[in-house]
Write a structure and sequence with these properties.
Largest sheet: 6 strands, mixed
CATH topology: TIM Barrel
CATH architecture: Alpha-Beta Barrel
Bound molecules: zinc ion
Shape: globular
Strand content: 5-15%
Number of helices: 8
Number of domains: 1
CATH superfamily: Glycoside hydrolase/deacetylase
CATH class: Alpha Beta
Distance between the termini: 17 Å
């Protein structure tokens, strides 16, 4: 197994998730949606960042439909908490609550064998790492540069991803995927489509990406599935 791509979306913005899921489903490809569980309606956590304020983050029926259609719904913490830095270091109980509570929300609303998490603000600490290992099967951290995961030596709690932004053109996407090693796994980290969320991509760009992946026979899989398969194949 190798040369796999995962297409992930952070923050759980509902309009973009619905549109992205529809595009992906046309190609029979699964997406991964990392939701801030406290932002799912009825909201239990305040929204303080501009990219998410005033936007719908769906309700659990919405996310259950996404999961039932074959996509992965994972955690992006309970309140978009920054698990690294001084504030987190001073409030270790909050780090614990953020990680555990969002896992409990997912297990209650969208039960699954396992869930995966992506860390908001790409922030982690030794404490958050220890807690994440207890509650999730994998953890995605972000990155501005193209980085691949190696399936032959996978580190499921330090999964690298690449977040293409407005400064990247189509050639950058193709170059990143073509340069993927034989046992490589590229996790793409997006937020939403068109004018929603942090550095959104256009619906056309997502469609173009799906077409290219299909035409080049590159497998698209969820983070949970790639990690589960890799663990199985490594088992004695
Ligand atoms: Zn986020």
């Amino acid at each position: 197994m190798g040369r796999v791509v995962s297409i992930t979306f952070d923050d759980g913005l509902a309009r973009g998730a619905a549109a992205s899921a529809e595009i992906l489903e046309r190609y029979g490809m699964p997406g991964v949606f990392y939701v801030v569980t406290g932002w799912v309606e009825p909201m239990r956590a305040p929204i303080r960042d501009d990219a998410n304020m005033g936007r719908s983050h769906g309700d659990w029926n919405f996310w259950r439909r996404i999961a039932t259609a074959g996509h992965e719904v994972g955690s992006h913490t309970f309140s978009h908490f920054k698990a690294g830095g001084l504030k987190a270091a001073l409030t270790p109980w909050r780090v614990a609550r953020e990680i555990a509570r969002s896992q409990q929300d997912l297990q209650r609303e969208i039960p699954a064998q396992s869930h995966t998490i992506s860390m908001p603000w790409n922030a982690a600490s030794p404490l958050s790492d220890r807690l994440v290992r207890r509650a999730y099967s994998a953890c995605r951290v972000g990155g501005g540069d193209v980085q691949y995961n190696r399936l032959s030596q996978l580190r499921p709690y330090a999964l690298r991803s690449w977040a293409p932004g407005p400064r990247h053109d189509w050639g950058d996407y193709v170059a990143a995927i073509e340069a993927m090693p034989q046992d490589g796994w590229l996790i793409l980290g997006f937020h939403s489509l068109e004018d929603e969320g942090w550095e959104p991509i256009s619906a056309n760009r997502l469609d173009q990406l799906c077409t290219w992946l299909r035409d080049n026979n590159i497998e698209v899989a969820t983070v949970r599935d790639v990690v589960a398969r890799t663990k199985l194949s490594c088992a004695p």
